[in-house]
Amino acid sequence: MNKTHLDNILNNAIDFSKNSDAWKIILPMILIDKFILDKTDISLSHFGLLRSDSDVLVTLFFNNKVLSPTELYEAMLFSSGGMTKVLKRLEEKELISRIPSSIDKRSLLVQLEVKGEVLIKQALLAIAEYQSQFLSILEESEKVVIENAFKKLAYALLIDDN
């Protein structure tokens, strides 16, 4: 899609919906999300990771490196069957391990291994560099406004889930 096509959609949104203001905000968000996720997938493939792999590694990395499968499931958008496949793949790559829970010996926790931590740090740095370049067209004050607005929207989504 080029700028003319986007402008045509946004300028004609008023004919489409009484809520054209929402459309004019959401459509660019969708395009940005798609573009960033596509670029992220390309970066992740450089590290031999799928997006689902990185989601598990990032979740572990930012959550004390050990979680139960239920905690991982709650923090992510996978079906339990999907989670099992991802965990098996990451365990085979020695990026995570399964360790016995000290609370319930019958259950296994998912632990981020040093190899997984190093890999996800490298991937996050590469992605962050791209994202920083992408956002460089914005002034600092614009970044603050967008950050606060998106955070507010994200928190609203979380409230709706509870």
Main attributes?
elongated; mainly alpha; single chain; Arc Repressor Mutant, subunit A; 162 residues
Topology, element by element:
Layout: H1 3-16, H2 20-46, H3 51-61, E1 66-67, H4 69-75, H5 80-92, E2 96-100, E3 108-112, H6 114-135, H7 140-161
Helix pairs in contact: 1-2, 2-6, 3-6
Would you give an account of this structure?
- The protein is mainly α and 162 residues long.
- The chain folds into two domains: 1-46; 49-134, Arc Repressor Mutant, subunit A (Orthogonal Bundle), CATH 1.10.10.10.
- The chain contains seven helices and three strands, in the order αααβααββαα.
- It has helices at 3-16, 20-46, 51-61, 69-75, 80-92, 114-135, 140-161, and strands spanning 66-67, 96-100, 108-112.
- It has a three-stranded antiparallel β-sheet with strand order 1-3-2.
- A hairpin with a 7-residue loop joins β2 and β3 (108-112).
- α1 (3-16) runs antiparallel to α2 (20-46) and α3 packs across α6.
- The radius of gyration is 19 Å and the shape is elongated.
